[in-house]
Amino acid sequence: MLQHHDTDLDRALDRLYLDGAVSIPWDHLYIWFNVDRLSKGAYREIKQRWEKRCTYYGYKKAPALSILQGNNSYPYLLRIIREPFQPGEDLVRLDSEI
Questions:
Q1: CA-to-CA distance for 44 and 77, rounded, in angstroms?
Q2: What percentage of the chain exceeds 90 in pLDDT?
């Protein structure tokens, strides 16, 4: 991975850390990883970088990551969501009582 692509991936993981979710265009990922299709190795690298980032910020265990898949309404984006870090940071459905 080229250095500036490495930096772009790090920025995306910072957004995930701060915001709880990030959307990355597939074409960016293909360029960053220099592939036509993401392999298990690319997903593994994203997960390892996520775990390293969480450790750096003082967490013993990184929150699990999920990929939001849908009915192709956003076929050009990889959408990653993290689990909450701690109590008080909860996922709440918008149609539930807040």
A1: 18
A2: 67
- Mapped onto helix, strand or coil, the DSSP state of residue 97 is coil
Cα distance between residue 70 and residue 74, in whole Å: 8
Cα→Cα distances 34→29, 75, 80, 95, Å: 8, 19, 20, 41
Distance CA 48, CA 9 (A): 12
Output helix, strand, coil percentages for the chain, rounded to the nearest 5: 45, 15, 45
How is the chain split into domains, by residue range?
A: 3-82
Assigned CATH for 3-82: 3.30.1370
Q: Sorting pLDDT into bands at 50, 70 and 90, what band is 70? A: low
* Predicted structure pTM score: 0.83
Q: Tell me which residue of 48, 47, 51 sits closest to 62, measured CA to CA.
A: 51
Q: Which residue type is seen at 3?
A: Q
